[in-house]
Amino acid sequence: MIRKPWLGGLLLALLVTAPVRAESYRLGDLEIRDAWARASAPMQKNGAAYLTIVNHGGQSDRLVAVEGDVAGAAELHASTVDAQGVATMHPVDGIEVPAGGEVVLRPGELHIMLMDLRRPLAKGASFPLQVRFERAGTVAVQIEVRAARDMPAGGHGADGAQGHKAH
Ligand SMILES: [Cu+2]
Question: Which 3-state string (H, E, C) describes the chain?
Answer without folding.
Answer: CCCCHHHHHHHHHHHHHCCCCCCCEEECCEEEEEEEEECCCCCCCCEEEEEEEEECCCCCEEEEEEECCCEEEEEEEEEEECCCCCEEEEECCCEEECCCCEEECCCCCCEEEEEEECCCCCCCCEEEEEEEECCCEEEEEEEEEECHHHCCCCCCCCCCCHHHHHC
